[in-house]
Specification:
mainly beta, 5-stranded mixed beta sheet, Neuraminidase, 4-stranded antiparallel beta sheet, globular, 2 domains
């Protein structure tokens, strides 16, 4: 055997050994990843990424929720198709689209009950003059669709005459104890009072019950979610203003309420966490709980800011 032949044989053998080692390592690495990222039955995976880009079809993402089976669903707000999107929270890719036979007048938030029904808040009301407020009830399993029609007990003018009175816009709600809890969005020039209304979580026509209110300093409310045991309420909010007469001033935060009595969430202890920004605050309009004090928040896309999911850690709160 010549030196060249021996060298080629030795090189080929070494290459084969390395390839075998690579295949073995790849197998075990893949198996480990599948084990780590496999969610428990009936619950979403606790593993999230710090930041995930969302596709163009979710440029105006305004609401999201996890169903009991672990699937993450999202929607866009007004002037967008009447569609719900099932999204992979690790990749941001849309895995399913469900088109609903109901107009998207101004869809603003999304929540769910323990049975897997989705509640779609068609209650955006920027001008404070809508008389057709509703919440759609959609069952993804059966594709059944129904609605809750409602009004506010304290609104008599459509719209109210002054900015201070125009506190009937709505972009945030949650399901809790067989009821829907809505949190108002005041005007940027208002006094930042957030009002908490309650509605039955069943089809029909109702007048919402006003149960409490609270000043959320320098923020208007755009999204809401509860943690898994209902002991912490998260609200997203932002503000846009002018500093020194010409410089834009923007802030976005997540507000966490805990140690409240019953369902009087706004009476709880408040802690605030600033949300990610680049030059200007992003327009965060949705939040959802994952696990272990971990939440996801989503911002709408703009020319200089892409629509994204962000991982957020809330302060540790004692359980009820």
């Amino acid at each position: 055997m010549s030196f060249i032949t021996f060298f080629n044989f030795d090189r080929d053998s070494t290459f084969a050994l390395r390839m075998n080692r690579f295949r073995i390592l790849s197998f075990f690495s893949t198996a480990l990843l599948l084990f780590v990222y496999q969610p428990d039955a009936g619950s979403q995976s606790c593993h999230t990424r710090r930041r995930v880009s969302l596709p163009p079809q979710l440029q105006e993402v305004s609401g999201m929720t996890f169903l009991p089976d672990g699937s993450l669903w999202m929607l866009n707000d007004s002037q967008n198709p009447s569609e719900l999107y099932r999204v992979n929270p690790l990749s941001g890719l849309v895995e399913e689209v469900r088109q609903l036979p109901a107009a998207n007048r101004d869809w603003e938030d999304l929540t769910t009950d323990g049975s897997g029904r989705l509640f779609i808040g068609d209650f955006g009301n920027n001008q404070n003059k809508r008389r057709d407020l509703r919440i759609l009830l959609f069952d993804p399993a059966s594709s059944s669709l129904d609605s809750i029609l409602f009004g506010y007990p304290d609104q008599t003018d459509f719209p109210p005459a002054t900015e201070q009175e125009r506190n009937f816009d709505m972009e945030a709600f949650v399901f809790f104890n067989d009821s829907l809890h809505l949190f108002s969005k005041h005007r940027f020039r208002g006094d930042f009072v957030c009002k908490h209304y309650v509605l039955p979580a069943s089809p029909g026509s109702f007048t919402a019950q006003l149960v409490e209110s609270r000043v959320i300093p320098d923020r208007v409310i755009t999204g809401a979610a509860l943690n898994s045991d209902g002991s912490v309420l998260a609200l997203t909010g932002y503000n846009v203003g002018i500093r020194w007469g010409f410089l834009p001033r923007t802030r976005a935060s997540a507000m966490f309420f805990s140690s409240f009595s019953g369902s009087r969430f706004l009476g709880g202890e408040l802690s605030v966490k600033r949300l990610p920004k680049f030059l200007f605050a992003r327009q965060f309009e949705s939040v959802v709980y994952v696990c272990n004090n971990t939440w996801l928040v989503a911002n709408e896309g703009r020319k200089w800011q892409k629509q994204r999911l962000w991982r957020l850690k809330s302060p540790a709160h004692p359980k009820k």
